[in-house]
Amino acid sequence: IEDGRDVWHQHRFFGKWNDTPIMAPMALMNREVFTEIGGYDKNFIAAQAENDIIMRIYALGGKVILGRDAFVYIGHRACHIGGIPGEHKSMIRQYYVADRQVLENAWVKEGYGCYGPGGSRLKQYTISKTRLKPVEPFVNAGITEFTQGPKGEGEIRWE
Description:
Radius of gyration: 18 Å
Oligomer: single chain
Mean pLDDT: 72
Largest sheet: 2 strands, antiparallel
Helix content: 25-40%
Strand content: 5-15%
Low-confidence stretches: 154-159
InterPro entries: Nucleotide-diphossugar_trans
């Protein structure tokens, strides 16, 4: 349930496309699996990290099980928009867009497929079964004492 709507069918890598992997807006796993997949990638600032984790679980041969009788309420508007002062709302949207690009760079292959009108080649995007870029995990030592992600390192990934 997201903002009062049942959206389980929309949580896929590319929205409503049925032939793309199911993504979990919330996940439970044991510590061994979390360690095996490399934990969180520090390149994600505000969004999409959970989708990257799910894709890495798929890459290990794991699966996503949707608990139809479970209830998790995610108030995106309240968390990301409603509770944020006006001058920072556009920053959250920019982080979301930037993080989506990080996700796609890690998992989506770009190539050329069939020919389109006028003989031009049409771009084709394929979701890889293995991650195309290595995970950059957080360093656990002193994790509560300093920022490790791109924002903390001074890298600005938005215009």
